[in-house]
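Handout, section 3.2

Students often ask what a structure token actually looks like in practice. Rather than define it abstractly, here is a full record for Acyl-coenzyme A oxidase. The first block is the sequence as you would receive it.
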Amino acid sequence: MFVPTLMGQCTPEQQAYWLPRALDMQIIGTYAQTELGHGTFIRGLETTATYDPETETFVMNSPTLTSYKWWAGGLAKTVNYCIVVAQLYTKGVCHGTHPFIVQIRDEETHMPRPGVKVGDIGPKLGFNTADNGYLGFDNYRIPRDNMMMKNAQVLKDGTYVKVARHGKATYGTMVFVRVLLVNEAAFNLAKACTIAVRYSAIRRQCSPDSEGSELQVLDYSTQQHKLFICIATAHALQLNSTWLWKTFSDTLAAIKQGNVDTLPELHALSSCLKALSTADAASLIEQCRHACGGHGYMMSSGLPYLYAFVTATRTYEGDYTILLLQTARFLVKAYEQVEAGKPLTPTVSYLSQAFTGKKLPWDSSPDGIIRAFQALAAGKLSSTVKSLRKRLESGLSYEQAWELSTIQLNGAAEAHCRAVMSQNYKSEIERLTVNSSPNVKLVLQQLYKVYLYYWALERTGDLLLYTSISESDIFELQLRYEGLLKEIRPNAVGIVDAFDLRDEVLHSALGSYDGNVYERLMAEAQKSPLNAEPVNQTFHTYLKPMMKGKL
Ligand SMILES: CC/C=C\C/C=C\C/C=C\C/C=C\C/C=C\CCCC(=O)SCCNC(=O)CCNC(=O)[C@H](O)C(C)(C)COP(=O)(O)OP(=O)(O)OC[C@H]1O[C@@H](n2cnc3c(N)ncnc32)[C@H](O)[C@@H]1OP(=O)(O)O
Ligand SMILES: Cc1cc2nc3c(=O)[nH]c(=O)nc-3n(C[C@H](O)[C@H](O)[C@H](O)COP(=O)(O)OP(=O)(O)OC[C@H]3O[C@@H](n4cnc5c(N)ncnc54)[C@H](O)[C@@H]3O)c2cc1C
């Protein structure tokens, strides 16, 4: 995040100085925004940067324990510079949070600079190869030029000048990383399902009739139900990530031309897609582990590591709930635009036809299911706005009414995001397979239908509320879904092979291409230090005395 922030928040002159040094690794940096007391609520950060015109420096301070920076990757022992987000004070006025480039260690000795307190935050659920750190300042001075001045400036005399056209321009790196994380979620989920599907083709368990041989566990319908949604979701996330990247690039190009009109929609999209993709990837990676039984619990399966790594993405760069609520703000505004007869931006344009007051006629075709997801999102949004307004009418403030409605707001944002993802999944497959062979088209369409049927069956309660779906329609959809799993089964291993992930990347005894699962598990077990000697010294120190009653 260090380099993207240098690119996004520095003036051209600052970039010319800092970027070559960072890209050449002459300096190593990190992004220190979160504090012990605040991560989500950026406006509540407590670190201060107070401008002193006498010396033309900013004085950095950590006034409380909770103001200590906490979490930044590599901060503890690796980096010598960091971007510190701090409350800017000049001429006695606080201008809110701004980013600063701060040298924290000597470039030669690597000793922390006087006035800098830095250390490691300790072991975590995962990410233990990263030295996430804490950081505090005691009247530590940095040059005025170290304020990142693309979006706001402090002149030599201390005058504050706002440059950016958008109030949240300094949040740009977060938007960029959220966009990247959708791709990251797809990649890691593809790894997990490659491991679990390959293993399920090797693993045999139980024989339906006592005479016959044991079945590959991949032949069980329940196993297919666990795993094929993982493959389908990996594709859904990958295609949505490509689409989101294009939306991001287009918005960035527009901003460079001085047009910030599409930023709110990008923020709403990157927020909900980051939230849903990381949450889905984490829970489906855990599902892949379940699908591998006991061996999935081994570190050598690679799955615990993947889970620990990916579950953090649900939290960092904006917690799941918080980001869905950001999307919900955008949706409520879109609702008001529909009421006022104003035009809508592309990803919410479906709302303009959705508030008919009638249930959408159920249609089980893929297009029909996408329309149903849209109706569901619109229906949830409409009920949420009703709740919000009822609470306002009862005399509550907007903030109070909003807070009481946040469970529903999150539900509406999740439904909207699922509808957007489904629509993109379909249109990206159509776009990308124009020249593909019929077989490739068929397989990709099967996967995309698995995604639609799976989520329709997961949301039958909502569909009953907002569409005319009947009990027999649900029964028919369930049978269709189960039939689809059987159609995919013969190609399942080929489909995950097509992710083209090398053994070195999978790093799994269960998921290697050669399928030598048992040999690899045994070879990994031999690496346990406990296998280095026939009798461990703890036998003599503790077990034997205990057994002889001498403890
Ligand atoms: C380094 C990774 C690089 C690449 C990733 C690729 C691969 C990953 C591979 C491996 C990963 C390895 C290592 C990475 C590990 C960890 C990195 C983690 C880094 C971090 O976590 S950095 C810290 C991130 N912190 C957060 O995300 C904090 C979340 N909080 C917020 O974003 C905000 O506080 C907020 C949005 C919740 C609220 O902000 P606010 O209080 O200032 O605003 P309001 O709620 O009042 O809203 C006002 C208004 O502003 C709009 N808004 C808010 N944010 C934005 C934005 N970003 N852009 C545009 N507009 C924004 C909001 O919608 C409101 O608008 P409205 O019109 O008034 O409704
Ligand atoms: C592995 C890892 C690496 C990280 N790397 C970095 C880094 O490099 N740099 C950096 O600056 N930060 C980093 N972070 C910090 C990360 O960005 C924050 O942890 C994240 O933004 C969540 O903020 P928080 O911890 O304050 O959670 P909190 O906001 O305290 O969340 C706690 C709970 O409260 C809920 N909550 C909070 N506010 C509200 C609200 N308004 N409405 C409803 N519910 C609410 C949340 O949904 C959550 O359930 C990292 C974190 C992790 C786990």
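Discussion prompt for tutorial groups: Residues 1, 31, 33-34, 39-43, 73, 168, 171, 174-175, 177, 180-181, 184, 263-264, 267, 316-318, 322, 326, 329 surround LZZOIA2V (ligand 1) (CB under 6 Å). How would you have guessed this from the sequence alone?
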